[in-house]
Specification:
With 363 residues, the chain is α/β, with parallel strands linked by helices. The chain has two domains: 244 residues, P-loop containing nucleotide triphosphate hydrolases (Rossmann fold), CATH 3.40.50; 111 residues, CBS-domain. It contains 14 helices and 16 strands. The strands form four sheets. Strands 6-7-8-3-9-10 form a six-stranded mixed β-sheet, sandwiched between helices. A four-stranded antiparallel β-sheet has the order 2-1-4-5, covered by helices on one side. The chain has a three-stranded mixed β-sheet with strand order 11-12-13. β4 and β5 form a beta hairpin. The relative contact order is 0.11. Bound molecules: adenosine-5'-diphosphate (ADP) and magnesium ion. The site of adenosine-5'-diphosphate (ADP) has 11 residues, from α1.
């Protein structure tokens, strides 16, 4: 969707902000540009909508060289969200959101309907339409910025440190909402941040840049964390690189052990036999709907009735198939037994996760 071919930018005075950049931003993906302050992120972003023009090379959007497209036409297809929000202070929220549709000459009814829709989409309360930016919190203003950029439904969005100005709790919420929204709208997005954790969370792919606009690595978050291309990248990814990688892998990727499972109606002999095949002295009781009822120690079974005749114990730890391996590892580290029960949708029993299984997977 967006391609950079040997793109260079030198500013008057001699600063090389971007040097021979090759990069392809695939359709419908979020590509994050990350790197220290001054490494050329904003410059790269602004070359996409021609707010800055390259000194060499070619930037193309949808196959068309941006230098051969008139800026107004180019920008119609590109939403732009900047840090510090950049709302018009003397226009209401509704007027701010309506900026591009108005320029496009939409009629009033259509604009109003679109503004209402977007205010809801980005999670703003109904009452904000006629307020002014200074009457909103930082997080709310940031949402208005996103709504404004989405107004004319552009296929491409450029976002320059969009969540940097808000506190960490609001930032987390905005990030989560953004990801949910993106899973619906599937825009092609170039997202700038200096925060590597934000990059890992938000990006389908990450471009790590160093001073002078040098691209050090371009890869998916998992690839980066598993195999940083050089020391710069490894340093930038920071400590706990291995744990950050585990945070991206769902528990469902590791095969769970079946475990010593018996039905609620099983007798002591069957429980003993099943436990023995699994070298355990306890059994998990799973009903015919696949739900785990609890577990029992063999020496607590009274030997006469079925296993669910005794009071079953609750599981100390459960992990869900959608949890990350990092969450699972944390659970196993604090567990006394080193075993977690893995549950799937509808809390169905899927097996056991042990420290051994996890470390095998890690190797
Ligand atoms: N208009 C400009 N004139 C001269 N130098 C500039 C201009 N804009 C940016 N620069 C320089 O280009 C480099 C990259 O800047 P920028 O793209 O803003 O970095 P980032 O967004 O990664 O912090 C910096 O050294 C900056 O000082
Ligand atoms: Mg910048």
């Amino acid at each position: 969707m967006i391609t950079f071919e040997s793109v260079t930018k030198q500013f008057p005075g001699g600063t090389t902000a971007v040097d021979e950049l090759h990069l392809q931003v695939p359709d419908g993906e979020v590509v994050v540009l990350v790197g220290p302050s001054g490494c050329g992120k904003t410059t790269i972003l602004r070359m996409v909508n021609r707010m800055i023009e390259p000194s060499g090379g070619r930037v193309a959007v949808n196959g068309e060289d941006v230098m051969r497209t008139s800026p107004p036409r180019l920008r119609r297809g590109i939403g732009y969200v900047i840090q510090g929000i950049g709302l018009f202070p003397h226009r209401t929220i509704a007027q701010n959101v309506a900026t591009v549709p108005k320029l496009e000459g939409w009629d009033d009814d259509r604009i109003k309907a679109r503004v209402d829709e977007l205010i809801e989409t980005v999670g703003l309360p109904d009452g904000v339409r006629d307020r002014y930016p200074h009457q909103l919190s930082g997080g709310q203003q940031q949402r208005v910025g996103v709504a404004r950029a989405l107004a004319a439904d552009p296929p491409v969005m450029l976002m320059d440190e969009p969540f940097a100005a808000v506190d960490p709790i609001v930032r987390t919420r905005l990030q989560d909402e953004f990801l949910r929204l993106q899973s619906e709208v599937r825009k092609t997005i170039v997202f700038v941040t200096h925060d590597i954790d934000e990059a890992i969370k938000m990006g389908d792919r990450i471009a790590i840049l160093s001073q002078g606009g040098h691209l050090q690595q371009y890869a998916t978050p998992k690839e980066l964390l598993a195999e940083p291309a050089n020391d710069f990248v490894a340093d930038f990814l920071g400590a706990e690189r291995g744990l950050k990688r585990l945070a991206l892998i769902p528990v469902s990727q590791v095969e769970a052990a079946p475990g010593p499972v018996v039905a609620p109606g099983a007798g002591i002999d069957e429980a003993r036999r099943v436990a023995e095949t699994h070298s355990s002295d306890w059994v998990v009781v799973v009903d015919d709907e696949g739900r785990a009822r609890g577990w029992a120690r063999l020496d607590e079974l009274d030997g006469r009735g079925p296993v669910d005749g005794v009071r079953l114990r609750d599981f100390e730890l459960t992990v869900h198939a959608d949890d990350s391996l990092r969450t699972a590892l944390n659970a196993l580290v604090i567990s006394r037994h080193g075993v977690a029960v893995r549950l799937g949708d509808g809390d169905r029993y899927e097996g056991l996760l042990t420290r051994e299984l996890l470390s095998e997977e890690l190797r």
